[in-house]
Amino acid sequence: MAYGIHIKIIMHNMVSMKILDVKNHHQRDFYRLNYEYLDWATRRLKQEYGIEFVPFDEQYTEAIAKYASDSVEEYLHIGSEGHVAVLSENGTVFGMGLLKKLKEEVSEIKRMYIQPTFRGNGYGKHLLEHLIDRAYEKEYRVIMLDSVKFMSTAHHLYQSHGFEFCDPYPESEIAEELQKHWIFMKKIL
Fold first, then answer.
1. Mean pLDDT of 141-167
2. What pLDDT sits at residue 2?
3. Is 155 inside any structural domain?
4. Position 2 in a domain
5. Which of 53, 78, 107, 187 could be a cystine partner for 82, CB 3.0 to 4.6 Å?
6. What does pTM read for this prediction?
7. CB 150 within 8 Å of CB 48
8. Which residues, 6 or more positions from 168, have their beta carbon under 8 angstroms from its beta carbon?
9. How far apart are CA 101 and CA 51, in angstroms?
10. Alpha carbons 33 and 97: distance in angstroms, whole number
11. pLDDT band at 72, cuts 50/70/90?
12. CATH classification of the domain holding 78
């Protein structure tokens, strides 16, 4: 279903939540969520570690918008070897995640993000399980991920689904000088 619409409907807290494939629909929502994620993560990195990827000046919004746009463009072209999904409830798109190929039999989960007002309700669990299911379907044997250290709630979620801490992996996009602020995990399927 590389270019079709993949919809998974889950009853969660008596509300119908949908996990939707982004290939042909919800691209604008995917961009919006990427922008929110990048803005939030950039501000938290500055606050927690003093890391400033983008100067907080008059060009900040433009720089984040460009990075979000470039990310969306890249992720929407991952092809049949990956999967891009958003979470929707009652027509509101509030979460995203993706699976991409790193190398033969090895995939990576990226951009797991749930808007703050929707956190703590199990949506991340359903999205993670969905991405793990896609990895099984695509016959990957390993799933890798990286996450900033301050995202400890996410780390507990990953651990509860069989991910274990590991050393940084060469395909990670995290620069070596920043890796001390990240954790790296893998799950053998």
1. 97
2. 36
3. yes
4. no
5. 78
6. 0.87
7. yes
8. 146, 174, 176, 179, 182, 184
9. 28
10. 10
11. confident
12. 3.40.630.30
Token digits of residue 165:
């801490």
Handedness of CA 174, 177, 182, 188 (dihedral sign): positive
HEC sequence for the chain: CCCCCCEEEEEECCEEEEEEECCCCCHHHHHHHHHHHHHHHHHHHHHHHCCCCCCCCCCHHHHHHHHHHHHHHHHCCCHHHCEEEEEEECCEEEEEEEEEEEECCEEEEEEEEECHHHCCCCHHHHHHHHHHHHHHHCCCCEEEEEEECCCHHHHHHHHHCCCEEECCCCCCCCCHHHHHHEEEEEEEC
pLDDT 10s digits, 16-33: 567 766 666 688 898 999
Q: Number of structural domains, the chain? A: 1
Q: Tell me which H or E stretch contains 30.
A: helix 27-49
Please report whether residue 78 resides in a domain: yes
42 belongs to a structural domain = yes
